[in-house]
Structures are given as structure tokens and as C-alpha cells.
Amino acid sequence: MPSQSLTSKHAATRTLDARLVRVPPPRRDACLVGLGAAYAIALAASAIALTASTSARASGPARDQPAMSPEAAHAAVDRMARRSEELFRRYREAKARHDAPRARCLDRVVSMSHAVERRGQDEADAISRAARLADDAALAERSHRLRILIRNGEALKDASDSCG
Description:
Blueprint: H1 2-21, H2 28-57, H3 70-96, H4 100-133, H5 136-161
Helix pairs in contact: 2-4, 2-5, 3-4, 3-5, 4-5
């Protein structure tokens, strides 16, 4: 009699263990998407760093472009905001589908996109102030910075396409 209860108890423990330990096998495509996402983030970060470092030293054609009007600056920031909203929508969809690697990748890209958008808004406001004060040097500098942020936002959009 004790052996029967021991056997049934052992079977129940084994069944319980099987339920607790049951883990679906890793998807091969998820691993590849995770690597692609990491590569995309690294690529976007290096592109942003490269753009920032080269723009700090640039005195050539990039700075020779005409200054942006306050209207054009705020329109550019509005485009950045729409791009961030689109990226956030993609992030929510990935999260709803329980696509963890894509969601993590898009989360990073959305965070960087929101940061670029906030800095763009600051630069657009500075362009408006410089235009009101007729400060041509500040207007040219802020316009140049906003153009860099616009390029960085576009690079983030491209990086989000690599998220899987």
C-alpha cells in the first residue's frame, strides 16, 4: 500500500514538474530578429554619433545653407512628432503580438526618437526667438542644429525598419 501512494505521489510530482518546466523551444527567427535589432540600434547610434561629431567640426556646405524660417522649423518638428507617433504605434503593435525582440528594439528606437523630437522642439523655439531678435548668427546655428536632428530622426526611422 505505501508503494502505491509513493508511486502516485511520484507521478503527480513528475506531472507538476513537467508543467512548471515546460518552456517552448526558442524560435530561430526570434534570435535572428534580436541580432538584427541589436545591429540596427548600434547602426543608428553610430550614425547619430558620427553626424554629431562631424557637424561640430563642419564649416563647409552644411553651415552655408540658408537659415530656416520659424514656420519651416516648426513644420519639421511636426514631421518629427508624426514619425515618433508612427514608431510608437509600431511598438504597441509588436507588444500586442507578444513579439518581444521587435518590441525591445522599437522601444529603444522610440525613446531615441522622442529625445530627438524634444531637442528639435527646443531648436525650433530657439529659431523663433532668433528670428524675433533678428540674430542672424544664432538663426544660422540653430537651423544647422535642427537639420542635424532631422537627419538623425530619419536615421532612426530607417533603424526601426530593421527591427524585424
